Amino acid sequence: MTAVGCNQISNIGSKKIECGDPDAVTLLKEVLQKSIDSNAKSYGEAFETRTSGSNIRASINELTTDISQIRTTKEDPQSTKNFCMGTLKVTIPVNMIENANFTREYYGELDVEEDAYQQDIDLDANALTYAAEYSVQPTDDGEVVFVEMQNGSDLSNFIANIVVDANQKSNVQKQKAVENKSIAQAAVDAEKAEEFAATEAKNALASVAAEQAAVKAEMDYKRSEFNVLWKSASTSAQQSLTDNQAQWVNYRDETCVDEARNAESVRQEIVRMECITRMLGERYYEVKSYFDSY
Q: pTM for this structure?
């Protein structure tokens, strides 16, 4: 991370600034905040509804940053620049982590704790600890001091993502509400479609049943008509045609069953009875002609 912080410090002359100087520590915290703010703005562009800059800054201000175990790692007698290291502790509000996890769960991403583990970032509950490397140097005129972080890009990016994800919770809630409404409406539509289909099926069955009753009535009439014809003939005429009639009945039944098989299942019985009715009508005139000439 190359972010640089600078500030005026009175009466320092050309002397070096110690790593633990309060002004240097304050600048180091500001450097980290600026880096988080920059990364948060970039990351926030990935969302359809962007997090405002004011919300990002407000969230960053909720972070608590402390530096401890500060030491000088390198000192050049020919330069006013000191290279430093310190243990940086960033405490993130618990509700911010919870809100970020809410957003991450919606998008199917790692929660904050697992994300820290995968990136080898030391997160204990809601506190991050990080070995920060930075440099401190005054300007030649001694009026301004510069603090530059030598590392920390992974840390600032990690925190920036948490900040943005936490702020996206309200947008996710709205999206989920819209989706849930859509799902509920789809369920209602599906239920209506099922009811309509059931009604249509019921009506179709009722129509088939009515048609079947009408076809059966016509078939029964043809049978009755044929039976009257048969009984009107003499016994000898009936006996002379009995075997032929039995063969014809078998042929009729086989023919009508074959016709019915080719129809859709719900209409097979109708087709079978229609076939019998038709063949009975044809047989009636054949038998009547035979009896008339017997």
A: 0.65
